[in-house]
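Students often ask why we bother encoding 3D structure as a string. The short answer is that it lets us treat folding as translation between two languages. Here is a chain of 497 residues written in the first language.
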Amino acid sequence: MSPLDPDAVSRPPGQQRSDLRAIARRVMLERGLEPDFPAAALAEVGRLHGPAAPDGADTHDLRDRLWCSIDNDDSRDLDQLSVAETLRGSDVRIFVAVADVDGLVAKGSALDAHAARNTTSVYTAGGIFPMLPERLSTDLTSLNEGEDRLALVVEMTVGADGTVGGSDVYRAVVRNRAKLAYNPVGAWLEGRGAAPTKLAAVRGLDEQLQLQNRAAQALRALRHQHGALSLETSEPRAVFEDGELADLHAEETNHARQLIEDFMIAANGVTAAFLERRGMASLRRVLRSPERWERIVELARAHGGALPDAPDARELENFLAQQRTAAPERFPDLSLSIVKLIGRGEYVVVEPGAAALEHFGLAVHDYTHSTAPNRRFPDLVTQRLLKAARARRPTPYATAELTVLARHCTEQEAAANKVERQVRKSAAALLLQHRVNEVFDAIITGASSKGTWARVLHPPVEGRVVRGEERLDVGDRVRVKLLSVDVEHGFIDFARV
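And here it is in the second language, the structure alphabet:
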């Protein structure tokens, strides 16, 4: 029996995770992504003797600060740390340390070539396919707890009103005092749980995180005043027990997740501004105005809201805020519909002095990707640009090269998203294989000439409506009957009831 055979679900216990990994590998290859590292790249890793070391006097020593990381509980590729300090008045100085991946992954190396090919780590229900070998991404270039590491530090002053004042970018040596996880820290910040053990074990870290949380909430409040969208967009994660798929769990947002998100958005804005000031072209992340704004207007009207005829992020955010308060139980479904209608972001090149480009969903201008160089190639490119700008050296990437990279990174990100989505569908089909003919409450998440898709509310899985789909559109709530599943291809077919 082939490990990709749909009947493989009846194989011995513990096999389902490996079956999903085999599916992920196949789909990556079909989408033009490399699941395995070439021999030359692995040979380069084998020649490394340790983490990158300072190579000059222009490196700060910030190891005495109470740095910590907050990530998923199973994350091992730690890209950033944060710490804060109070200033006169109510201002807070925030420091975000980003792993110095370029210190070990040289431009033009075999490692760099592989990273440039895939452009991103691929996270699937069958396992992670990292952009860089694990000896780098989870060890030598990861900001691991208790280890001295080189980093690029983004320093910024945040006012009580959420405005970002003075800022700088420089190299430093840092040490992670505590590897923390989103959910326990979020529960503690919101008063729903005790302080996690690692947090409580570091003297002063509790006050430090409370300070960071206040600054993050101020940043968030100001962005939402400007029209940043309050959307809940987390994808369901597969839950395994002894290698068998037990459930799909949708992660909920909390103050810890928001803290990291808000700091990363601010740090990416500071990074873009720094490169602009130094006269260097850069990769920017943009999300253009929604092409299906008319349907968003219809959807708002169906929920008792009114939006203008032209795209307006601030008005959309006001509507979303009202809906979150009025119908919190339905808000995740509304969020999903809006996300589908807005579309996806892309990478573009911006020359110094050019007009700023807006990210519609975040309500920010001058925005780049710089805080996850272990996981995303654009961030590694930006890191090299920052180093050159800091040292006032010529750019390592000509504008023409950046333009090609921007298009390629956008395409490969889309390919990776399709891989992740298809493996999620295979996992969903695996979970639903014994529930054929059951009826579920669902919401329409896609409607076009290519087909109509619905997401079941629980478990949170998506499938195609192959009967009774006429006149359905994104955001409609329906009841659907499960007709069939195909684990190998991730097909789930529904009929409208």
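Translate back mentally: The first helix runs from residue 16 to 30. Keep this in mind for the problem set.
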